[in-house]
Design goal:
InterPro entries: HicB-like, TTHA1013/TTHA0281-like. Pfam families: HicB_lk_antitox. The protein is α+β, with helices and mostly antiparallel strands. 42% of the residues lie in helices and 18% in strands. It has helices at 36-50, 59-63, 66-73, 99-111, 116-129; strands spanning 2-9, 16-19, 27-30, 77-83. Strands 3-2-1-4 form a four-stranded antiparallel β-sheet, with helices on both faces. Helix 4 packs across helix 5. It is elongated.
């Protein structure tokens, strides 16, 4: 998992705009703060569909960039965004859970027409990325 730094800016009551100094052409917009994780995740997925993996630069290097300094001077903020690159390979994992919790997981997954694995993966992704 890599963490990319997003520059988050907003003018007045407009939507939040996000750009990534390490990823030219990758941007997102969110109507409110709570929507940012979802929109950023979509933007990163789209960007990496057609681009090679980019190693994120350290925060101190990004802060020194003139365009980042300018954005910060205009009220922008920086946000570390986790990105989980899909690799398409399923891996079996052995985990231990309280029996009651496992029962609740299975009941909830079944009610949502999901497998236990899909349910747990979705929960883990949401916990890590906010989406």
């Amino acid at each position: 998992m890599r963490y990319y730094t997003a520059v988050v800016h907003q003018e007045g009551d407009s939507a939040f705009g996000l750009s990534f100094p390490d990823l030219p052409g990758c941007f997102a917009a969110a109507e409110d703060w709570e929507e940012i994780p979802e929109k950023v995740s979509e933007a990163l997925d789209l960007y990496f569909e057609d681009s090679e993996t980019v190693e994120p630069r350290p925060l101190n290097v990004l802060r020194a960039l003139p365009e980042v300094q300018e954005a910060l001077g205009e009220g922008a903020t920086l946000m570390a965004v986790p990105y989980i690159a899909p690799d398409g390979t399923q891996v079996r994992a052995n985990i231990s859970l309280d029996r009651g919790l496992l029962r609740a997981i299975d009941e909830t997954a079944q009610a949502r027409r999901m497998s236990r694995s899909a349910f747990l993966a979705a929960l883990a992704r949401r916990e890590i990325t906010g989406v």
